[in-house]
């Protein structure tokens, strides 16, 4: 999978879609106490946390979850011992949902705020690690000026991540080569994380790409 030639504009790229989706999830959580869908699944969260642990990233380092949704990744990071966690989302209902989940999990120290990564506030800067699970994918599907928005994302990421900091991205739309090209301005490709592969018609492929980049000035 991958390449903008292979996928066109979609409702998944609009704020209206995600506002409505998280309003439904928030209502469901209030009624049932269920946190809802885990974007990309448990395996992708475990993969990211294992990489942080393998690199001996200090537990007190500042981590930003871009497009946090229901905040489940932050819960898993907190359970793994990380203490300086921030989640942002441009949907107020997603932030309200994740705050409710943090309260239920007894994790009041996790910072959650309404922010658009394409237009980040000045306070959003200096992070040691930034993580994206599907947000860049969604921006790529925006029906309005998706290419411009992707470039703005890269600029904003360069601003919020400290020099030498790490960026971990999980995508189901882009290949390693395509992502390396998208993030070539200001980022150094470090490594590809192993993801599940499938075999179809004698060809082996992967439906998910997970990469690590390093901020360079």
Structure description:
The protein has 217 residues and is an alpha/beta fold. It is built from seven helices and nine strands; from the N terminus they run H-H-E-H-E-H-E-E-H-H-E-H-E-E-E-E. It has helices at residues 15-32, 41-54, 72-79, 92-105, 135-140, 146-160, 176-182; strands spanning 62-66, 84-89, 111-114, 127-133, 161-171, 187-193, 197-200, 203-206, 209-215. The strands form two sheets. The chain has a seven-stranded mixed beta sheet, sandwiched between helices. It has a two-stranded antiparallel sheet with strand order 7-8. Helix 1 (15-32) runs parallel beside helix 4. The longest helix is centred in the N-terminal third of the chain and has 18 residues, at 15-32. It is globular and about 45 Å long.
What is the topological layout?
Layout: H1 15-32, H2 41-54, E1 62-66, H3 72-79, E2 84-89, H4 92-105, E3 111-114, E4 127-133, H5 135-140, H6 146-160, E5 161-171, H7 176-182, E6 187-193, E7 197-200, E8 203-206, E9 209-215
Parallel strand pairs: 1-2, 1-4, 2-3, 4-5
Antiparallel strand pairs: 5-9, 6-9, 7-8
Structure in a nutshell:
The protein has helices at 15-32, 41-54, 72-79, 92-105, 135-140, 146-160, 176-182, and strands at 62-66, 84-89, 111-114, 127-133, 161-171, 187-193, 197-200, 203-206, 209-215. By secondary structure, it is of the alpha/beta class. The strands form 2 sheets. A 7-stranded mixed sheet has the order 3-2-1-4-5-9-6, with helices on both faces. A two-stranded antiparallel sheet has the order 7-8.
């Amino acid at each position: 999978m991958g390449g903008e030639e292979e996928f066109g504009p979609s409702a998944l790229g609009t704020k209206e879609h995600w506002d409505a989706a998280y309003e439904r999830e928030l209502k469901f959580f209030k009624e049932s106490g269920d946190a809802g869908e885990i974007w990309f699944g448990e395996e992708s969260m475990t993969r990211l946390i294992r990489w942080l642990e393998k690199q001996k990233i200090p537990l007190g380092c500042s981590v930003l979850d871009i497009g946090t949704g229901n905040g489940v990744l932050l819960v898993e990071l907190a359970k793994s011992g990380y203490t300086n966690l921030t989640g942002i989302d441009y949907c107020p209902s997603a932030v309200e949902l994740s705050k409710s989940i943090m309260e239920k999990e007894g994790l009041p120290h996790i910072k959650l705020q309404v922010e658009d990564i394409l237009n980040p506030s000045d306070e959003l800067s200096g992070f040691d690690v930034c993580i994206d699970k599907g947000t860049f994918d969604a921006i790529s599907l925006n029906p309005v000026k998706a290419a411009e928005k992707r470039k703005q994302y890269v600029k904003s990421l360069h601003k919020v991540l400290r020099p030498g900091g790490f960026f971990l991205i999980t995508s189901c739309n882009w290949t390693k080569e395509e992502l390396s090209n998208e993030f070539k301005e200001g980022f150094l490709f470090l490594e590809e994380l192993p993801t599940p592969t499938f075999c179809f018609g004698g060809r082996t492929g992967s439906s998910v790409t997970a990469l690590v980049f390093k901020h360079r000035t």
